[in-house]
Amino acid sequence: MYSDKVMDHFMNPRNVGEIKDADGVGQVGNPVCGDVMYIYIKVEQETITDIKFKTFGCGAAIATSSMLTEIALGKTIDEAMDITNEMIAEALDGLPPVKMHCSNLAADGLHAAVEDYKAKKEGRPSPTPGMSASCPGSCDSCDMKEEH
Amino acid sequence: MERIYFDHSATTRVDPRVVDAMLPYFTEEYGNASSNHTHGQTAKEALESARQIVADSLNTSSKAIIFTGSGTESDNTAIKGVAEKHGKKGKHIVTSVFEHPAIANTVKYLSHNGFEVDQVPITSEGVVDLEKLKELVRDDTILVTIMTANNEIGTVQPLKDIGEIAHDKGALFHTDAVQAYGKIPIDVDKMNVDLLSLSAHKFHGPKGVGALFVKEGVTISPLLHGGGHEYGLRSSTENVPGAVGLGKAAEIAHADMDEETERLTSLRNKIIDEVTANVKESYLNGSREHRLPNNANIGFRWIEGESILLLLNHVGISISTGSACSSKSLRPSETLLALGLKPEEVHGSVRITLGRFNTAEEVDYFIEKLPPIIEKLRMMSPLAQ
Description:
The structure holds 2 protein chains of 2 kinds. Chain A contains 5 helices and 3 strands. By secondary structure, chain A is of the alpha+beta class. Chain A has one domain: Sufe protein. Chain: A (Alpha-Beta Complex). Chain B is built from 13 helices and 13 strands. In chain B, the strands form 3 sheets. In chain B, strands 2-8-7-6-5-3-4 form a 7-stranded mixed beta sheet, with helices on both faces. In chain B, helix 7 (159-168) links the parallel strand 5 and strand 6. The longest helix of chain B has 22 residues, at 257-278. Chains A and B meet through helix 1, strand 2, strand 3 and helix 2 of A and helix 10 and helix 12 of B.
C-alpha cells in the first residue's frame, strides 16, 4: 500500500530526535486520531540550520515527518511557510488516500514551529499547540465512508 | 526462514487434506446436486455428507444446516431473515457493542428500516454484561444476536446464559461463530442457540463458503429467492466443492480439537507472558481465561500499531493491528474502546492469531524480534516517557 520512498523514510527515518535548545517547536495532531508530531527547528539568520522530529503514528506519519525534515533543512523561514502537506506526499511518490489527512501533518508541524520561533523572537506568547487545519480532532473528517 | 503467518483471524491456509477432498468435485464429480441422474446424485451425496459433518459438530440434525457463500451472508440471512419473518411480532433487536461489521452494519441497516436496536455493553474483560442484557431484552424483542468469540480480542461469550435471557422473553438467539467455530466446542442444544453462522476459511477451509444453523422449528425468510435450494433458504446451485471443503475442514478441526487447543494455548500463553515481561508498558487486551486458544491482543503504550505491523512485516512476520489505521478508516477500534482503553492505547494494540501450521520456533522468533521494534518506535515517539 505504500511507495518504496515511504517505506525507505519509514524504515530509515532521517533527523529523528529533539533539539534541546530549539528556537521553535511545533506540535500538531491528536492522539485520538493516532498521529502526533513534534517538529524542532534551529534558526540562524532566518534560515533553518537544524531540524528534528518526534512522531507517534503510522507508517505515513513517520515517513512524512522524515521527508519534511529533509525538505525544510536549509530553507529560509519564509520558504518553510510555503511547504505544503501535499508537497511532502508528492515527494514520497504519493500516499494512500486515507492517509492524506490525519497522517500527513508534517508541513503543519513545521509551520507551527516557525510561528513559535517568530512569537519567541517578538516576545509574544506562542500560538496554542495541538490542532492543525488538516486534523480538526474528529475521526469523522478522515473516514473514507464511500469505500465501505 | 519462511515468512511467518500470525493472522489466522483474518484467514487461514487451506489444509492440503481439504484441497485433496475438494479436487474431484471440480473435474470428475462435477454434477449439479439438484439433478436426478448419477452425476447429480454423486454430487448430492457429497453435499449431504458435508452437511452431516457440520450438523454432528454442533450436535444438531443435518436438516438444520444450510450452506451459504460466506460468514457475512450467513449473518445477513439470519438477521434479516428473522426480522422479515417475525417483524410483526416485534421490532426490537439486541446486539452487543463489539460485533463484527457483518452484524453491526446489518442491524444498523434494520435500524434505518423500522427496527429498534439496543447494544449491550461489555465488561473490561471483554465479555458481555449479562445484567445489562437482562435489562435490555423486552417482550417485543424478536432477536438477540451476540458473537460467540470476538474477532479482535478473542474473548468467548457466555452463550448458554445469553440464550436463556433471550428465550425468557421469547426472543430468538443468533450467534456469529465465525471466529470460534472449529476452535472451541459448540453444542447448539445445550447452549440455547437458535441460529449460528460460520465460515470455512477461518478454520483451514476454502474461502467463499459458509454455513448457517437454523434450529428446526425456527422460521426465517430467505435473502435469495430462486430454485429453492438449501430447504428454500438459499437458492443458488450448490457449491459442492466448497461444501465438501468446509465439511473436511470441520472434520479435521473437531477431530484434533483437544490436542490443538492445548498446543495453541501454550504457544499463545508464551507470547503473552514473554512479551508483557520483556516489554515495559505492554498489556493483554481482554480476558485471558475466557479467550480463544489462538488469540493474543497486546497493547503497547506510546506507539502506533500500524508501525509495529510494518516493522514486523519487514522481518517476515504477518500480524494485524487493533488500530483501524491500516484499514480504510482511521477510527479507533470500537471493540478496544468498549474495553475501556483510551484512544491512544487502542492505536497501540496489535493482534497475533495462531493457526494449525505455526510452530514453537516461529513463536520464539517473534518473541525475539518484537522488543527492539517496540524500542525503535518509542525512541521516535513524543509520547514515550
